[in-house]
Amino acid sequence: DGHDRGRIYRVRRADGPRITPKSWQADTASDLVRALESDMPHDRETAVRLLAERHALDQAPALTALVAHGRHPATRVHALRLLSRWERLTPEVVGPALADPAAEVR
Fold it and tell me: Is residue 59 classed exposed, middle or buried when 0-12, 13-18 and 19+ CB atoms within 10 A define those classes?
């Protein structure tokens, strides 16, 4: 009956909006690349994990664009790591990344 297990509670105001967890299963690889631009770190990390698990090599051009134009430094780092994992890094991608204003990208 669950008396021996802990509980996770989501505290919110009584009149506050109800939050439903996002289901990632139906998302396409391009949806996941767009999720890399999310303001929520959890969403970015989940998108990276799912892209890696799905071996979404067809998204390499979109990831290359994110390395150059991603809003968040974390987005650019995730894109670089995925491209590296898939052996899709080129001098044209790495060169500008080495000049990125954010230290974590360099």
Answer: buried
Burial bucket for residue 80 (CB in 10 Å: 0-12, 13-18, 19+): buried
**What are the distances in angstroms from CA 4 to CA 1, 46, 97?**
8, 30, 50
Is residue 30 a contact partner of residue 59, using CB atoms and an 8 Å limit?
yes
Over the stretch 67-95, which tens digit does the pLDDT of each residue have? 999 999 999 999 999 999 999 999 999 99
Q: Which two tokens stand for residue 93?
A: 């991608």
Q: What six digits make up the tokens of 76?
A: 């650019």
pLDDT tens, residue by residue, 29-56: 999 999 999 998 999 999 999 999 999 9
Q: Which amino acid is at 85?
A: R
Nearest of 94, 102, 85, 21 to residue 49 by alpha carbon: 85
Give the Cα separation of 64 and 16 in Å (integer): 39
